[in-house]
Amino acid sequence: MRICSRCRAEIPQQADRCPECGQACPREKVKMTPLHPLPSRMYAEMVKEVLEKRGISCIIKTDLLSSAFGSDGTSAVGTRAVIYVPEDRCQESEEILHQMLDHI
Question: What is 31-104's CATH topology?
């Protein structure tokens, strides 16, 4: 599966551009690696914003509870979010994540 780096829409394998926003997309698949899990989507969104400002594309995946019920709060027990980044930017991304959130 390919994901647009601009709008996060799914891109068909044969397409050269995103069907949603028109962004040019590479044909090769990028291997995505998970970072350390975060306690909620809210934390993941903060980290994602910083990663993208540094040119690191990323995707957030949440657990079933959060995604099924739209729960984005920090107080729900057992909720978590994981950020996936390109494998070649994993170490740099982990360092950024820990600099931002080493207190949690």
Answer: Alpha-Beta Plaits (3.30.70)
